[in-house]
Amino acid sequence: GSRLRQEDFPPRIVEHPSDVIVSKGEPTTLNCKAEGRPTPTIEWYKDGERVETDKDDPRSHRMLLHSGSLFFLRIVHGRRSKPDEGSYVCVARNYLGEAVSRNASLEVACE
Known about the structure:
The protein has strands at 9-15, 20-22, 28-30, 33-37, 41-46, 49-50, 62-64, 70-72, 86-94, 97-100, 104-108. The protein is mainly β. The chain has one domain (15-108): Immunoglobulins (Immunoglobulin-like). The mean pLDDT is 95. Keywords: Immunoglobulin domain. This is ROBO2 protein. Residues 11-107 form the Ig-like domain.
């Protein structure tokens, strides 16, 4: 007979982030959506480094949305400090494995 209980399965990315060009001080979102059972946790990496969000620091200008997307309240960009510009991937994990999204570049438009 068929068992009703659905099996756990490893994450898969169902919506990948796309490249974005944004002006300094403007908000923007990098989309990411993953499926998996149990529900995967999402982390973002920029140029290989884990991105800090409001989950790490409530004052952060980067928010990890419930969907898994990364929302920037405003793009921070200065002559010396360019914390938001770079190449991003989102990684979805559960105990069965992980899935990595395509790369998306966030570029800050010139004034």
